[in-house]
Amino acid sequence: MKPGITKDLSSLFLRLALGMAFLSAVADRFGMWGSFSQPNVGWGDWEHFVKYTEKLNWFAPHSLISILAWVATILEIVLGITLILGLFTRTSAIASGALLTLFAVTITIALGIKAPFNYSVFTAAAGSFLLATIDRYRWSLEGALRTGLKSNAVATIEVSAPDCSKR
């Protein structure tokens, strides 16, 4: 396989995997994967997610816990969607890496070093930062828009060029 296509496929796969992981976590906290205590369900509802947020952020005032839960959820929705679509990819990748690093550190402080490794949080953070180093996102909405804008610019120049042969 050619290096260019490998890079393009790898960045697409990484974008989709990270984006779907964020949206899957959000779906879990709203009960879309099932209810609490069912197999493969982490929280199952908002209440259990807020309790988990409080456990991880034991140092934060109780009044901030609900806000932290909502901020994390909104960020995960926005980053999940932008990564899947490939829109603002570099910014989304850096923000994802920062958010995941923050999660990893918080989980480590609250639960110990093994917990973030069990959920590959450090790996996802590293993947996010690696995604930010890609020079182009070929199979992405921003890539399509960029290609479309270049094509339209060339077409506009060709159409608007004066016909000098009739002089």
Topology readout:
Layout: H1 3-29, H2 46-56, H3 62-85, H4 89-111, H5 114-118, H6 121-131, H7 141-160
Helix pairs in contact: 1-3, 1-6, 2-3, 3-4, 4-6
GO biological process, one term: methylamine metabolic process
Subcellular location: Membrane
InterPro entries: Methylamine_util_MauE
Description:
With 167 residues, the chain is mainly alpha-helical. It has one domain. The protein contains seven helices and no strands. The chain has helices at residues 3-29, 46-56, 62-85, 89-111, 114-118, 121-131, 141-160. Helix 1 (3-29) crosses helix 6 and helix 3 runs antiparallel to helix 4 (89-111). The longest helix is centred in the first third of the chain and has 27 residues, at 3-29. Residues 152-161 have low confidence and may be disordered.
Descriptive keywords:
single chain, 167 residues, mainly alpha, transmembrane helix, transmembrane
Q: Can I get a quick summary?
A:
With 167 residues, the chain is mainly alpha-helical. Helix content is 72%, strand content 0%.
How far is the first residue's CA from the last residue's CA? 52 Å
What's the count of strands?
0
**C-alpha Rg, in Å?**
21 Å
Structural class: mainly alpha
User: N-to-C SSE series?
Assistant: HHHHHHH
Mean pLDDT: 90
What is the count of distinct domains?
1
Compute the number of helices.
7
**Helix amount:** over 70%
